[in-house]
Q: What sequence folds into this?
């Protein structure tokens, strides 16, 4: 069985995760259609009338939905292959849970760091009157930064690890729950290394903004599994840089890009 066939079989071997992905997208789309988007769009630490702890709980819930929708599809080849390999362990279910737990820990910590960064940025904007009335000078440079990162060596090195799940397993696989958790952490870090800049974009446009969420999710998936992933990554980088510069030059060009911050 060649690698492509094995990876397709691995995708089919994770029905619970596939269900989680479908449910996450259903929640995001349903919230948009019913006008309840604030429940999955939540990415603010301080919200009027809501305690910081409750706000944090809302964010963690929304963020897990966001990760299930956008990042789990890109990790399915690796998760599926690990599922197959871990099947011979004494406690395969615990090993699989440990691997997925390690992966989610990385992205949850990143989400919390991004949330704190967003709160600090919001505080700075509130104190800087000039910037408060020019949100394009926040969104535009972040889009340019994300586009520039698409050309970086770090992006490509991390993508190489994600594009070769079989080699990654051969080099780093260890039995047991702790070994699985460590492997999940390691894989999560490489996944974060190639996708963090695109996920930061979601904090600017809104983490449940479907107009950005869907294409960026497809982009990150294709970067990892598509035949022309490198070419598409760089083309998308150029597009993001262009959009960022257009937003800076004329924010009215894309009024839906800049939600009230």
A:
């Amino acid at each position: 069985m060649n690698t492509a066939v094995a990876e397709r079989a691995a995708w089919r071997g994770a029905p619970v995760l596939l269900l989680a992905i479908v449910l996450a997208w259903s929640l995001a789309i349903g919230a948009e259609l019913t006008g309840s988007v604030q429940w999955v769009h939540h990415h603010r630490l301080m919200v009027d009338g809501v305690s910081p702890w409750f706000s944090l709980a809302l964010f963690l819930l929304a963020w897990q939905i966001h990760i299930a929708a956008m990042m789990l599809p890109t990790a399915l080849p690796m998760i599926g292959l690990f599922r197959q390999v871990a099947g011979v362990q004494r406690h395969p279910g615990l090993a699989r849970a440990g691997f997925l737990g390690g992966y989610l820990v990385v992205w949850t910590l990143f989400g919390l760091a991004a949330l704190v960064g967003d709160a600090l940025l919001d505080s700075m904007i509130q104190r800087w009157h000039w910037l408060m009335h020019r949100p394009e000078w926040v969104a535009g440079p972040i889009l340019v930064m994300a586009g520039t990162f698409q050309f970086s060596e770090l992006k490509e090195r991390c993508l190489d690890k994600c594009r070769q799940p079989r080699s990654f397993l051969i080099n780093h696989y260890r039995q047991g729950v702790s070994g699985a958790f460590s492997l999940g952490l390691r894989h999560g870090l490489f996944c974060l290394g190639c996708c963090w800049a695109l996920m930061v974009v979601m904090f600017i446009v809104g983490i449940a903004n479907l107009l950005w969420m869907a294409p960026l999710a497809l982009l990150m998936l294709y970067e990892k599994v598509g035949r022309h992933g490198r070419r598409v990554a760089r083309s998308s980088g150029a597009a993001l840089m262009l959009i960022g510069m257009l937003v800076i030059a004329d924010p009215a060009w894309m009024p839906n890009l800049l939600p009230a911050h």
Notes: Residues 92-127 form the longest helix (36 residues).
